[in-house]
Amino acid sequence: MKGIILAGGSGSRLHPATVTVSKQLLPVYDKPMIYYPLSVLMLANIRDILIITTPRDLHQFRSLLGDGATLGLNLDYNVQPEPHGLAEAFLIGAGHIANDPVALILGDNIFHGYGFSDLLQANTTDIEGCVLFGYPVHDPWRYGVGETDGSGRLTSIEEKPTQPRSNRAITGLYFYRNDVVDIAKNIRPSARGELEITDVNRVYVERGTARLVELGRGFAWLDTGTPDALLQASQYLQTLEQRQGVRIACLEEVALRMGFIDADTCYSLGRAQAHSPYGQYIMDVASEVDPSPIHPGT
To answer: Name one Pfam family in it (predicted).
Structure first.
């Protein structure tokens, strides 16, 4: 499976903070926002990943993440000059997707929960049409909302309904069969001229091949698109990390535990950031995995 992170847009709801910098490069507590969606794809065992951003921000993302080789990844980049809907990602990324299924994640979404990697990997194979991820919310009228039958098959999707049929919001994480590219090519733009992801998903609903995976109690789904939401996400992550002594979405640790890199490589990546608590944490994780002396004398 290939992966796409959609990290474009102007971030206008976060102005003036995003006037000169991408929203997805802002810090969420102790690391750039882009680390969180990237770690989700890594936990799904996806290593070929396309990052779609704006022409202005492309250089900064390349400078931060490079080609991904140090993490055992293959990162590529493309641009979305103007935002024309989430489904445009499949047209921009058609060459990257090629003949494979694809996972799309929005660059400002944060997911966290026990067993998340196993849940993701269990849903990356044998995709019949699309797999969406639902999360219970108290204000479903603000979201796209999914309704399912007893087997988890989606029977309807409503975009910001006035009378929601369920409280399960569709999150910013989507898995698709390869035919999503052709579907995106053939949907009609909305009145705003955008290719809506909900219209793509409705095609699979009509075919009976759309499935909803519940992210229920014990999971967190955070959107960081406003100043308040960004602050709340940072405070949530700060609390968890300080109480548990772990770092959520630490890319180097995820790469090590997924087997993308070995302990020596992980330690070296931490040592390059050794003046920060983040770098010290990476070195500690590498040493716990392989307690043998690493780079003696350094």
So the answer is: NTP_transferase
pLDDT tens, N- to C-terminus, the chain (298 residues) = 999 999 998 889 999 999 999 999 999 999 999 999 999 999 999 999 999 999 999 999 999 999 999 999 999 999 999 989 999 999 999 999 999 999 999 999 999 999 999 999 999 998 999 999 999 999 999 999 999 998 899 999 998 999 998 999 999 999 999 999 999 999 999 988 999 999 999 999 999 999 999 998 889 999 898 999 999 999 999 999 999 999 999 999 999 999 999 999 999 999 999 999 999 999 999 999 988 756 554 4
Q: Of the candidates 71, 14, 16, 13, which has an alpha carbon nearest to the alpha carbon of residue 251?
A: 71
3-state secondary structure at position 13: helix
Query: How far is it between the farthest Cα atoms of the chain?
Result: 66
276 phi/psi in degrees, rounded to 5: -110, 155
Global confidence as pTM:
0.96
* Residues across the chain: 298
Residue 162, class by beta-carbon neighbours within 10 Å (0-12 exposed, 13-18 middle, 19+ buried)? exposed
Dihedral-angle region of residue 175 (phi above 0 means left; psi in -120 to 50 means alpha; beta otherwise):
beta
Q: For 180, which DSSP code?
A: H
Which amino acid, 55?
P
Q: Which residue do the tokens 């109690």 mark?
A: 217
Residue at token pair 């102790």: 30
Cβ contact 81:54 at 8 Å: yes
Site of tokens 């009228």 = 141
Q: Which of 78, 178, 187 is nearest to 129 (CA)?
A: 178
